[in-house]
Amino acid sequence: MLSLLVPGGSGQLGRALAGLASPEAEVRAPGSAELDLTETSAVVAAVSDLAERARAAGRRPVVINAAAYTAVDAAETDEWRAFAVNADGPRVLAAACSSRRVPLVHVSTDYVFSGEHDRPYEPEDALRPRSAYGRTKAAGEDAVLGSGARSWIVRTSWVYGAGGSNFVHTIERLAAERATLSVVDDQRGSPTWAADLAAGLLELASRIAEGTGPGRRVLHCAGAGETTWYGFARAIFEEIGADPDRIRPCTTDEFPRPAPRPAYSVLSNASWRDAGLTPLRPWRDALHAYLSSTR
User: Fold this and answer.
1) pLDDT of 252-280, one tens digit each?
2) Which class is domain 2-166+190-224+266-281?
């Protein structure tokens, strides 16, 4: 039986992990106010407590790190803070896991890639982040993999879910506020429902706890298929009964943002399937299920 520690428990993914975990599992999912990854002593204490409680109860401890600084544009002028949360925090967390022999699953992002490919990215592709956010997440991956901990990196993309600000919520709000919208149509990726991702991460954690974790240490897990932000927005409009023709496509140049985005950041799920893990459903099916669950 599992004992889970989920830093970032108040975020979209953290909430989904806590909500979907087996009733038999012991889950602690603290938000940043309760467990700040930039506070070394608190991180060490949390991992030590997890290890001691789990082993006293005959359970198997696993940490799933869902904590991250995800304000992509703000990170361009606040990179020191993003680095503290996305790189230094995972380094301390991984070191604590290594010393207490606790396996670690660390969640990362498609933004570690440049976006210059014309085919889905594989885990072994070179990291060439274009933004401060991407650089700090890449540094976090390096810190975890170099820590000596039994660790796995799981990259995902375009995550949305309950309990936070995301693209789906934004488009729903704008549908009620504006007659027309312009949405970028030259950036491609794979939308991922937090609940589907959480189910996959819990499956991975169970495998790790049983001693059958994948030999590959970096995996990709995202919604199946691909689209653009414009295509994603049209799908949202269709799901909520709004006229998708109210949305017009635009280019990235027409919608400048402080942080550069990868033009193509679709993640190949082959590594996930090859590890014997359950592939995530097509992104459009997941969107339908998510919006149906909110009504």
Assistant:
1) 999 899 999 999 999 999 999 999 999 99
2) alpha beta
